[in-house]
Amino acid sequence: MRLAASVLRLDTPAVAQVVQADPDAALRRMDEPLLIDEWQEVPAVLGAVKRAVDADPRPGRFLLTGSVDADPAATTWPGTGRVVRQAMYPMARREIDGTADGAGLLAAVVAGNLDEVRVPAGAADLDEYVDLALRGGFPEPVFRLPERLHREWYDGYVDQLVTRDAKQIADRRPALLRQYLEVLALSTAGLPAGTTLFEAAGINKETARAYDDLLQSLFVYEPVRPWLSNRLSRLLKRPKRYLLDAGLAAAAGRFDASAVLSDADLLGRTLDTFVAAQLRPELMTVAGRPRLHHLRAEGGRREAALVVDLGNGRVIGIEVKATSAPTSRDARHLAWLREQLGESFVRGVVLHTGPLPFELDERIWAIPICAFWGTPADGFRVTTGLQ
């Protein structure tokens, strides 16, 4: 879905010269909403945006995009009250499929409108889910390249990342960054200790921290913080580490679909990574800006793959299961969390690889992963009672 009516590409020298000469006039000539791409090439354009917004504060008039190291806060223009920052994540399947209009799955779960959850006709099976996950969500391979070239594109992306982008940090050894990225990829959606990671990559703690910061700034990697509550004791405080795109994880970790389907641990973490990629954009569309966490008790006795914190102590617990027929056993940790939290437990969801949505237990629902990109025109709905 295209939001911008016009685009100013400031990395084009001729366009940049025109905007530099008179930024205010350049903005007035363009249709709105206006996307200003690579704004850091003409920093004066921020002043023109400020003046335009002060004169007409309607929201959504301008979209500003720039390089990873482009920071409006580093300029003299204060964006407070005028700019809302948005993370640029890889695309979710509903965006790729063109079904992103309207409320998503998370909004329906939060609102309790589970009868509005839809499953696409011809719901995916396990092999198809793995294939979808490893296709990833980067626009270039998804929209512009044949499927046989997707892996080559991701391999090239990894090469560029570890050679070009490594120059942004003091330790510029591409081989070590590549090795660390491979370790992260093989640990995606896992809870390894920091020492485990940097020792496996053959680097020290300071270098690992610099690499983490770099990969986060590039929207390649994200640690998901643990959800903590004074109502629960002995919870693990270690972050859950995700590469943001399963296709990138496969390239960096040097594995493919056959490896995923023959390794239960890698399969679980690949599906978890894929589900988290569908959830992140939806967090930005739900009122109150919910936050994504995970939960695990020390020793692994109790856990939830993901916890959506809605604020005011209210949570949604999520499990991700590589099964087409989830049972109450797959929801046992969610049932435990429900008993511990009472009414603060809004809903539990077991996301699975089967075709049917159904009620699994009180306030716990089994929903196919593909419901993330279902539309009102699709057939199956969540219904009460086991199917």
Automatic annotation (TrEMBL):
Residues 23-96 form the AAA domain. Transmembrane segments: none annotated. Residues 164-322 form the DUF4143 domain. Pfam families: AAA_14 (PF13173), DUF4143 (PF13635). This is DUF4143 domain-containing protein. It comes from Jiangella alba.
